[in-house]
Amino acid sequence: MATTYRICPRSGLQFDTAAEKLMRFHAVAGVLALLVGGIMALGVILTRWPAIKLLPADTFYMVLTAHGIDMLIFWIIFFEMAVLIFASSTLLRCRLAMPKLAWVASILMVIGAIMTNVAIFQGESSVMFTSYVPMQAKPHFYLGLILFAVGALLICFIFLGTLVVAKAEKTYEGSIPLVTFGALTACIIAIFTIASGAIILIPTFLWSLGYIREIDSLMYRVVWWGLGHSSQQINVSAHVAIWYAIAAIVFGAKPMSEKVSRTAFFLYILFLQLASAHHLLSDPGLSSEWKIVNTSYFMYFAVLASMIHGMTVPGAIEQAQRLKGYNKGLFEWLRKAPWGNPAFSSMFLSLIGFGFLGGISGVMMGAEQLNMLIHNTIYVPGHFHATVVIGTTLAFMGLTYFLVPVLFKREVLFPGFAKIQPYLFGLAMYVVALVMMGAGTLGVSRRHWDMAFAGAPMAYEWPGAAYLMMGLTGIFSCIAIVGGAGWILQIVLSILFGKKLEEGELRSTPIPLTLPAPTTGSKVHPPATPGTMVLALIFLTAFILYYFVNWKYLSSLWGLS
Amino acid sequence: MSAILPPSERVWWNQPIDKLEFIWIAIAFVWSLTMFGMMIWWHIYGNQNLANETYKTTKEMFAAKAQAVVDQYTVRTETDKQVPVVKPPAGSDIYLIGRLWDWWPIYELEKGKTYKLHLSAMDYMHGFSLQPQNINIQVHPNYDHVVKITPTQAGTYSIVCNEYCGIGHHTMVGRMYVK
Amino acid sequence: MADQEERIPVMQKWLDNPFLLVFLGVAMPTVLYIVWGVMEIANIPVAR
C-alpha cells in the first residue's frame, strides 16, 4: 500500500497521512466521550449538591455509572490511542505499521463504547464504573467493554510494531525520543491493564449470560483493580510524556538528563501498576505483606519516579528560560513564561495540581493503615479528580491547543477564551478536588444519592462542615463544567469552522531526521535550577506535614487489631 | 536536544547528572523509604491496624451465628422494625450482618473493652463506615472478616453503608452504642 | 567524535529494547499483584 507523508509547515513534524487520519479519529471520538461524560457530570453534581438534589435515585446512579465509564475509560483511552500513534509514527518520522488493522481496532473500540453506553442508558446496568459482582449488569455492558479493550490492545501492538518498523527502516538514529519512551511506558501499562480486564470481564460476561454460576467478589476486586487502577496509570505515564512534549514544543526545553528521566519511566514500568492494591487495603483476606509491598509500589519507587518527573519537567523549562536570558532571581524564568499560551498554562497547572493535590493525597490514602480513614468516602473521587482531571485531562486539553493547527490544519477560534480556559477549568477543579477531600475527611460517602439519608430509620447527621464542603463542590464543579464545555465547543467549532491552514508538502518517501551536531549540547554547561529546587522543597514540606497529620488523626481512632 | 527528538548523544547513559537534580533524587529516595518504614512501624507500635483474619463462609452459616448471639444477649428492640439491641459480654465474638438495606443488629459495647467483630454481607458488597469515628471497611458476601475493636470513647455511633448497593443504598444506616 | 567508539552501557541497551521492557512491565505486576493476591484468596481457611 502506498504511504504518503505530509510535512506540517507550522511544526516541521512529518505525518504519515494514514496515521494522521487515525489520530484525528481517536481525538474526535475521545472528545465526544468527554462530551457525554461532561453532561453526566452535571447530573451527578447537581444531585450531590445537597441544596439542589436534582435527579431521583435510580437516574442518579445510572448517570454516575455513565460519567465514570465515559470519562475514565472512553475519553481517556481514545485520546491516549491518538497519543500512541503520534509518539510512534510522527515523532519517529516513519510509516504506521498495519494501518488497516488499526482501523479495524478503532471501529471495534467505537462499537464497544456505544454498546456499553446503550446498556447503561437502557437503565438496567447501573453498576458503577467498577461493576462489582454480585451486582449484575446486562451482558452487552460487559461485551462493549471487552470489544473496546480488544481494540485498544490491538493499537498497543501497532504502536510496538511501529517502533520495529522505524528501527528497521532507520528513520531515526540512536534511542527513541523521551516522549516516545513515555508513550512506550503507557503502552506497556495498557497491555497489563487490558489483560487484567480480559481475565475478569470475560468470565463476568459469561456469568451475566448464565454460563457461570458465581464469581467470587474478593477475587473480582483484586483482578478488576488490575484494570481499574492501572488504566489510570496509563494516564499518568501519558500525561507526564505530554508534559515533556509541551516543555519541548513551547520552550525547546531539553531534558535535564536523559538518564534520569528514562530511569524514572523505567521505575513506572516496573512498579506503577502494583498500586492497584490501593483499593484493597480495607478488604478482608489479603495479608499485610501483600498490601504493603503492592500499595507502596514495592518501596515507593514509583512515587520516587513521579517526584523526579515533577522536578525535571519544570527544571528543563527553567534551564531553557535561563539560557534565553531570564536569569534574574529565583523565579524570573517562571514569571516570564508564556502564561497566555494555553498549551503551557494547561501543562503547568496540570503539573502543580497533579503533584500537590493528586500526588500527596494518593500517597496518604495508599498507606495501608491510613486507608481506613477514607476508604469509599468522597475523598477518593476528590483524589482522582486531582489526578485524572487536573493531571490528565488538563494536559490533554493543553496538547489539543497545539494539535488543532498541526493535525487538523485549522486555526483555533476564540483565542481570547483559549487564554483563560485552562485557569477557569483548572483552578475550579483545584477547588473541587480540595473540598471533596475535605468532605471525605469528615466521612461523607462516595456514590451516595442522599447524604441526609431520607427514609432511613436511623439516619445519621453529618456535621455542618460536610454540607458546606458538598455545597462548594457543587458550585465549583459547575464552574469547571463551564470551562470544560467551553473547551469542547471551542475545539469542535475550530475543527469545523476555523480558518483553514496550509496543508504542507505531500511526499511519497519519508525524510529521515537530521539532528544538529551534538557538540553545542555537550559543551555549553546548562544553568543550575535553583527556582525549581525551591518549588520542589515547598512540595516536600507540604507532603511531609500532610502525611504525618493523617497518622496523628489515625492514632485518635478506636483500637483495631 | 529536546524531548521530542532522539537524544543527541549516542551514549546518554554516561552523561553527568546536574547537582541539584541529584540532591532532589537523594531526598526523594530517603522520603520514599521513610514512608515504607512507617507502615511497618505502625504494625509494631500503632494501635490501629486492620486485621487480616478472614474465613470463607456461607450466608446461612454467618446468619445463624449472628442469630445465636442475638438470641442470647438481646436487651431491647428499637424502631418500628424491632431491631434487636444486643449487649454481649466483653471479649466475645459479635456478628454484624450487612444486607439490603440495613445493618443488623445494633450492638451495645463497653468502653475500653475489646470485641471480635465479625463482618459479612448477605447479598451484594457493602461498606462498613463507622461515623463519626470514620473507620471504613469493605464487607464481602461469603467472607467472614474478624476485626478486633476496642471502643475508646462512649457515645452513639452510626454505621453508614458506603459501598453502592442499589436503589436503597442511602437508607442503609445502622447504629452502635458505646457505654 | 570519540563517541562513535564508546561502547553502549548495558542499562542503555536495556532501555532501548522495548520488548524487554514489555516483558518486565507485564511480568512484575502479574507476579507481585495478581498471582500473589489470587493465591492468598485461594488459601483463606473455611469457617466452621
- Poorly predicted tracts of residues of chain A: none
CATH topology of the largest domain in chain B: Immunoglobulin-like
Largest Cβ-defined interface: A-B, 112 and 94 residues
Instruction: Give helix and strand order of chain B, one letter per element, not per position.
Output: HEHEEEEEEEEEEE
Strand count, sense and barrel status of the largest sheet of chain B are: 7 strands, mixed
For the CA atoms, what is the radius of gyration of chain A?
A: 23 Å
Strand content of chain A: under 5%
Number of domains of chain B: 2
Query: Looking at the structure, what is the overall shape of chain A?
Result: globular
The helix/strand class of chain B is alpha+beta
SSE order of chain A, as H and E? EEHHHHHHHHHHHHHHHHEHHE
Question: Helix- and strand-based class of chain A?
Answer: mainly alpha
Order of strands, main sheet of chain B, comes to: 2-3-6-12-11-8-9
Give the integer mean of the pLDDT values of chain B.
95
How many separate structural domains of chain A?
A: 2
* CATH A-level architecture of the largest domain in chain A: Up-down Bundle
Q: What is the correct CATH architecture of the largest domain in chain B?
A: Sandwich
Relevant CATH superfamily of the largest domain in chain A: Cytochrome c oxidase-like, subunit I domain
What is the radius of gyration of chain B?
Answer: 24 Å
Give the low-pLDDT segments of chain B: none
Order of strands, widest sheet of chain A: 2-1-3
Give a description of the structure:
Chain A contains 18 helices and four strands. Chain A has 561 residues and is mainly alpha-helical. Chain A has two domains: 251 residues, Up-down Bundle (Cytochrome C Oxidase, Chain A); 161 residues, no CATH class. A three-stranded antiparallel β-sheet of chain A has the order 2-1-3. In chain A, strand 1 and strand 2 form a beta hairpin. The longest helix of chain A is centred in the first third of the chain and has 34 residues. Chain B is an alpha+beta fold. Chain B folds into two domains: 36 residues; 125 residues, Cupredoxins -  blue copper proteins (Immunoglobulin-like), CATH 2.60.40.420. Chain B has two helices and twelve strands. Chain C is mainly α and 48 residues long. Chain C is built from two helices and no strands. Chain C is rod-shaped, with a radius of gyration of 20 Å. Chain C starts with 9 loop residues before the first helix and ends in a 6-residue tail after the last helix. The model of chain C has no long low-confidence stretch (mean pLDDT 91). Chains in contact: A-B, A-C, B-C. Chains A and B meet through helix 2, helix 6, helix 7, helix 8 and helix 10 of A and helix 1, strand 8, strand 9, strand 10 and strand 11 of B. Strand 4 of chain A pairs antiparallel with strand 10 of chain B, so a sheet runs across the interface.
